[in-house]
Inverse folding.
């Protein structure tokens, strides 16, 4: 994860929106975030955690979000842009926002926490959270990437169990937790074993012997089947010959039966022949004339009816035309008066216009009467304002002075400088007194430390040198004593006259004493412990003395700086007083009084100017108002003249003044209603006249058409009578000729639905069938053996054949069943062999899985892999830790995942990591954290990684701080970015690129940059 930009507003001391541009900071490889205690440095890390994981280290996890929001803000907003994913190739945006309840200041509304991805300039919301994007939980993120205050040594303080769990989650070691998978596989194998054993039990006592017995039985059955087939074939041939005779005998009987049935239908067919002949004569010769007679009867009836109707309509049309001609005459007479009526309508419209003009004339005269008094009043006001303005200008000329705003600004600046000099002088004098007191206190502490030095030593350094030499001498003596102790094993084997195994001497006058050696070793150990304790005490006193010397030097330098600052201040104060002597100003009160007099004079003149300015504004407004009134008066007078002229012209345009005078006093509504009524009547009269004329024309046309139709119907009636008479005569003559004189029978034939083709086909089919049956009977009766066929002999032979067929089928079924049994038996034998082979393999697999289950039980394999990762972590951390400790300490982890330290200053003995001093613990924590971050970088396949540190530098001495800083600087060559949060001044001097956090009383935390 590489940070790009962080925007904070409303978090803790960040009142206003502040943006930290990480792209410029991280470009240097190492950067710092500095500031005084409480300025808001650590809040930057908390903002990142809040944007990513929705909680901070201090409050949010406990639900106290109201304390997290700035007390002068109602809204908290954090926007964090960063790169993550494989090789940090993806650009993400995390946004976190909360608001206070408008009605309850202490209540915080639910947070809005969203993530976005930036691709090709487009921002798209995503459902993934920080854990999925970065690949780390919040706890691991705080131990490997961003380490807040109080969390730096958390990885060391973890117990072995949680530490292994962290390695498992951080590096995905759950893939090595194979216990559940192994158990599942073992369960599957056991179920498979049960299934295989069940299948084998179901196969029973299947064997090769049973298969051989079945094969012999099959061989015997094959011979039986062959004999049965030969016997059946002979019987079947005889039966086939008899079946052919039986079939022809049955055909003979069927044809005789058919002939008898045909003979019974002979009379019916003869009747149908006669009926068909009569039907053909009636429909082919008589029916066409009969149809013509019917058609002409209809024409005669139609012409007769039409003539009757036309005579009746002729009288009705005559009455209608007479009535329409009377109505049309009345409407034409009324329509001829239209011009006269339209002239009166024009006069009424002119009356309406005259009424409107008279109303406008009255309005114009009223406006003229009302405008004149108002205009006279405005002119009087104008004269009064001009007089007052002249008086104010005279007063301003009389009281004008030399006071300017520049003089007032100078006096105000002098007062401010006087107050500042006074306050700063008091502050500096108080600070000098405090510094003197601090220096005396430091000297007293140094004296107290010096008193603890023994009299025989000049200082702590000489005392430490003596103790180091003494420690080395005791250690050398102890080593010599240990060598002697090793020689004591040979003392009891020494005999006078026999050579020593070490030196070869045959004389042993003074052998080593065993008891004395043990006592001396114990004494040396006690001396070594005392000497080490003394050295630790000297080192502690040296550090204290060093710290006091640094503080005394700093305080002395600070005293000199403050003293010089006070001198400069006194000089500037004297310069200010001397510049004011010529103006009779000796005290601050004199200066304030002079500024007050000048202020009063300027304010008085400004008041007069404001009043004059107001009068001029009023005068200008009044002048514009008078001009507007005069213009409006002229316009209204012109309107009055114009309306009078228009009124006279309109009165002259009225044609019938007597008629119009009666409507002059009528209302507009009454006149308009009269006009609309007359207009509507004129329009209705025209429409009615047009309609009547059209109807009259249509009636006259209809009457003429009716007369023409009457003549046509008379002609049609005469023609139909002549045609009908001729056709009737022709029809009667043809009936006699064809012998069809029965009129009733003819009409039945005409109306009959007889199907001529069907009757003809039925007669021909009958004659054809008679011919076929007769020929078949003759042929069958001529063949030998058909007429005297023996049915009983045929039935006996058929029963014999059926019996042999049944017997053969029975034998064949036995063979088929036996073949199936043999096939099943062969299949079962193959299955049994395969199942036995699979069962053996499954039993071996079950044995192996049981052994693996024991190995993986209780996450044993995960713990083993985790311990390997921790050992690699220790090896990576030791590359820096041994350098920081000058090869005196080395980290190690045991089988229980507990951290130990190998102390080379104490014969390479092991002790717990927790026994290190604060500074050494910081060094170990730093090295482990860097190693852990390096592993995470490798896991994420990133070319570049990021590490943020907010702790520990205050616990280091100057030399250790230098070593740690060089170590951190070296990380830049490993393409790793390091961010440091601290208030230590030495670091601020070493790091070139940094952001400085300043707490402003009004604006809150402000971010400044070194670039």
């Amino acid at each position: 994860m590489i940070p790009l930009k962080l925007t904070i507003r409303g978090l803790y001391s960040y009142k206003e929106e502040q943006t930290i541009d990480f792209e410029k900071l991280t470009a240097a490889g190492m950067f710092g975030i500095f500031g005084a205690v409480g300025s808001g440095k650590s809040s930057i890390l908390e903002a990142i955690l809040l944007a990513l994981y929705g909680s901070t280290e201090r409050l949010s996890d406990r639900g106290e979000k109201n304390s997290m929001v700035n007390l002068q803000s109602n809204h908290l907003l954090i926007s964090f842009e960063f790169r993550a994913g494989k090789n940090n190739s993806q650009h993400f945006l995390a946004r976190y926002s909360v608001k206070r309840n408008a009605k309850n200041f202490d209540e915080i509304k639910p947070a809005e926490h969203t993530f976005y991805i930036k691709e090709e300039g487009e921002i798209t919301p995503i459902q993934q959270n920080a854990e999925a994007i970065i690949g780390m939980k919040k706890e691991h993120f705080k131990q490997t990437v961003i380490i807040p205050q109080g969390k730096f040594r958390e990885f060391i303080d973890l117990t072995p169990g949680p530490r292994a769990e962290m390695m498992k989650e951080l590096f995905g070691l759950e893939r090595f937790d194979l216990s559940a998978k192994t158990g599942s596989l073992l369960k599957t194998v056991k179920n498979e074993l049960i299934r295989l054993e069940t299948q084998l039990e179901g196969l029973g006592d299947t064997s090769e012997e049973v298969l051989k017995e079945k094969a012999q039985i099959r061989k015997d059955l094959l011979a039986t089947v062959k004999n049965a087939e030969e016997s059946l074939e002979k019987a079947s041939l005889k039966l086939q010959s008899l079946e052919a005779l039986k079939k022809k005998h049955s055909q003979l009987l069927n044809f005789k039966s058919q002939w008898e049935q045909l003979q019974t239908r002979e009379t019916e067919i003869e009747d149908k022949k006669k009926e068909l002949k009569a039907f053909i004569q009636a429909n082919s010769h008589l029916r066409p004339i009969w149809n013509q007679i019917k058609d002409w009867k209809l024409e005669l009836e139609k012409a007769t009816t039409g003539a009757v109707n036309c005579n009746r309509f002729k009288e009705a049309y005559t009455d209608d035309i007479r009535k329409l001609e009377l109505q049309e005459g009345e409407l034409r007479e009324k329509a001829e008066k239209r011009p006269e009526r339209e002239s009166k309508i024009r006069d009424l419209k002119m009356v309406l216009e005259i009424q409107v003009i008279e109303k406008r004339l009255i309005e114009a005269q009223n406006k003229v009467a009302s405008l004149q008094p108002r205009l006279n009043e405005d002119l009087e006001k104008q004269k009064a304002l001009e007089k007052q303005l002249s008086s104010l200008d005279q007063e301003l000329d009389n009281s004008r002075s030399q006071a300017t705003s520049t003089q007032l600004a100078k006096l105000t600046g002098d007062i401010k400088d006087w107050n500042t000099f006074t306050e700063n002088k008091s502050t500096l004098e108080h600070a000098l007194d405090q510094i003197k007191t601090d220096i005396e206190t430091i000297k007293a502490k140094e004296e107290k430390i010096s008193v603890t030095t023994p009299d025989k030593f000049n200082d702590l350094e000489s005392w430490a040198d003596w103790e180091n030499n003494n420690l080395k001498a005791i250690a050398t003596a102890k080593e010599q004593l240990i060598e002697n102790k090793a020689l004591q094993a040979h003392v009891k084997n020494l005999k006078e006259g026999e050579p020593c195994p070490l030196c070869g001497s045959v004389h042993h006058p003074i052998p080593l004493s065993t008891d004395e050696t043990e006592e001396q070793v114990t004494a040396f150990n006690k001396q070594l412990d005392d000497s080490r304790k003394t050295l630790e005490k000297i080192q502690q006193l040296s550090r204290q003395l060093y710290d006091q010397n640094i503080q005394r030097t700093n305080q002395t330098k600070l005293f000199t700086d403050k003293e010089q600052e006070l001198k400069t201040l006194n000089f500037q104060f004297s310069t200010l007083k001397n510049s004011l002597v010529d103006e009779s100003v000796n005290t601050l009160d004199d200066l304030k009084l002079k500024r007050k007099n000048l202020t009063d004079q300027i304010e008085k003149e400004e008041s007069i100017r404001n009043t004059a300015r107001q009068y001029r504004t009023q005068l200008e407004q009044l002048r514009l108002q008078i001009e507007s009134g005069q213009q409006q008066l002229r316009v209204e007078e012109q309107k009055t003249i114009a309306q009078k002229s228009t009124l006279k012209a309109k009165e002259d345009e009225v044609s019938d003044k007597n008629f119009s005078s009666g409507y002059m006093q009528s209302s507009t509504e009454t006149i308009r209603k009269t006009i609309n009524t007359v207009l509507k009547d004129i329009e209705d009269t025209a429409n009615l006249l047009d309609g009547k004329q059209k109807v009259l024309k249509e009636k006259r046309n209809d009457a003429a058409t009716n007369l023409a139709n009457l003549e046509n119907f008379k002609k049609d009636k005469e023609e139909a009578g002549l045609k009908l008479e001729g056709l009737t005569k022709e029809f009667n003559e043809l009936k006699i000729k064809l012998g069809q004189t029965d009129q009733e029978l003819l009409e039945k034939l005409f109306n009959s639905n007889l199907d001529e083709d069907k009757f003809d086909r039925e007669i021909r089919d009958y004659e054809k069938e008679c011919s076929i049956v007769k020929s078949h009977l003759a042929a069958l009766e001529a063949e030998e053996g058909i007429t005297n066929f023996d049915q009983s002999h045929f039935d006996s032979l058929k029963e014999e054949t059926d019996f042999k067929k049944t017997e053969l089928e029975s034998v064949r079924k036995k063979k088929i069943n036996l073949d199936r049994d043999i096939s099943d038996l062969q299949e079962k034998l193959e299955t049994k062999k395969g199942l036995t082979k699979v069962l053996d393999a499954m039993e071996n697999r079950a044995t192996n899985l049981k052994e693996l289950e024991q190995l993986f039980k209780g996450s044993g394999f995960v713990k083993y892999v985790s311990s390997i990762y921790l050992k690699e972590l220790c090896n990576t951390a030791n590359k820096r830790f041994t350098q920081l400790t000058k090869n005196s300490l080395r980290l190690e982890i045991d089988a229980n995942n507990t951290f130990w330290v190998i102390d080379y200053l104490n014969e390479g003995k092991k002790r717990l990591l927790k026994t290190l001093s604060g500074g050494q613990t910081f060094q170990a924590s730093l090295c482990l954290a860097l190693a852990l971050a390096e592993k995470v970088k490798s896991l994420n396949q990133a070319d570049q990684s990021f590490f943020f540190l907010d702790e520990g530098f205050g616990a280091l001495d100057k030399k250790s701080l230098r070593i740690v800083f060089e170590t951190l600087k070296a990380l830049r060559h490993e393409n790793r970015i390091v961010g440091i949060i601290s208030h230590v001044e030495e670091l601020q001097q070493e790091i070139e690129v940094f952001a400085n956090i300043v707490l402003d009383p009004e604006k809150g935390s402000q971010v400044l940059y070194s670039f």
